[in-house]
């Protein structure tokens, strides 16, 4: 019994005197990789599986007059972090009076994607007509997150995204008062309809809602 006690005491002494200090470099080590942001699917499906979200996010249509590709920011402006992007849209004029397609051509509409891209390269050799500076709002991607299925990006959320309420607030670029006779893009939460949204094709005031709701004047 006595030998066991002395053996245990010897082990404790050895442990106490051992070099158990943590390497200081391990305490201050840094990584160049950003911390991975939280995934959207931690709270809900991404994209949300209702028909409205699937329809808008899977259209794949870009509108340079608004914010480019449709993202969550267009309809939930206060729910995402974003930055402003400046887009220089340069127009060149076809100098050939006998051209089959006379007029001005935009470098945004005809981007150069490689050396074997003749039409966009040809356009840039024509007469410079004008430059329109477009200011778009782009949501900030979550750091370290892989692209979601369908090519969708997961974005950094703002405080309004965490208030347990669905906030539909259109981005200012979605409003086109000239086209909609002074009306601003709006959402009616009671009827779940939107109106005067620039990315919709109508040129007069309207209501956009699923026909299944049976509201008069609604469009699919």
- Number of continuous helical runs: 4
Strand content: 15-25%
Biggest sheet, strands in spatial order? Answer: 4-3-5
The poorly predicted ranges are 11-20
Radius of gyration: 29 Å
Tell me the distance between the termini. Answer: 88 Å
Write up what this structure looks like.
The protein has a three-stranded antiparallel sheet with strand order 4-3-5, with no helix packed on it. It has a domain at 83-139. With 220 residues, the chain is of the alpha+beta class. It has four helices and nine strands. Helix content is 15%, strand content 19%. The N and C termini lie far apart (88 Å). It has helices spanning 2-17, 24-27, 51-57, 118-123, and strands spanning 62-63, 68-69, 82-93, 104-106, 127-139, 186-188, 193-195, 207-208, 218-219. It is globular, with a radius of gyration of 29 Å.
Brief descriptors of the model:
220 residues; alpha+beta; three-stranded antiparallel beta sheet; two-stranded antiparallel sheet
Give a brief outline of the structure.
The protein contains four helices and nine strands.
Q: Which helices and strands occur, and which strands form pairs?
A:
Elements: H1 2-17, H2 24-27, H3 51-57, E1 62-63, E2 68-69, E3 82-93, E4 104-106, H4 118-123, E5 127-139, E6 186-188, E7 193-195, E8 207-208, E9 218-219
Parallel strand pairs: 8-9
Antiparallel strand pairs: 1-2, 3-4, 3-5, 6-7
């Amino acid at each position: 019994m006595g030998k066991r006690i002395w053996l245990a005491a010897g082990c404790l002494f050895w442990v106490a005197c051992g070099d158990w200090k943590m390497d200081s470099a391990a305490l201050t080590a840094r990584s160049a990789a950003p911390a991975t942001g939280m995934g959207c699917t931690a709270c809900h499906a991404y994209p949300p599986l209702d028909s409205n979200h699937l329809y808008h996010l899977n259209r794949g249509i870009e509108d340079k007059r608004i914010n480019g590709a449709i993202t969550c920011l267009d309809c939930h402006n206060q729910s995402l972090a974003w930055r402003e992007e400046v887009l220089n849209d340069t127009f060149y004029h076809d100098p050939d009076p006998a051209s089959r397609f006379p007029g001005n051509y935009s470098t945004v509409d005809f981007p150069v994607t490689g050396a074997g891209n003749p039409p966009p390269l040809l356009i840039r050799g024509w007469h410079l007509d004008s430059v329109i500076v477009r200011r778009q709002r782009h949501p900030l991607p979550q750091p370290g997150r892989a692209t979601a299925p369908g090519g969708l990006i997961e974005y950094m959320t703002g405080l309004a995204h965490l208030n347990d309420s669905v906030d539909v607030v259109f981005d200012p670029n979605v409003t086109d008062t000239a086209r909609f006779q002074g009306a601003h893009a709006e959402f009616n939460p009671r009827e779940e309809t939107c109106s005067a949204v620039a990315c919709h094709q109508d040129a007069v005031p309207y209501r956009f809602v699923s026909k299944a709701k049976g509201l008069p004047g609604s469009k699919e």
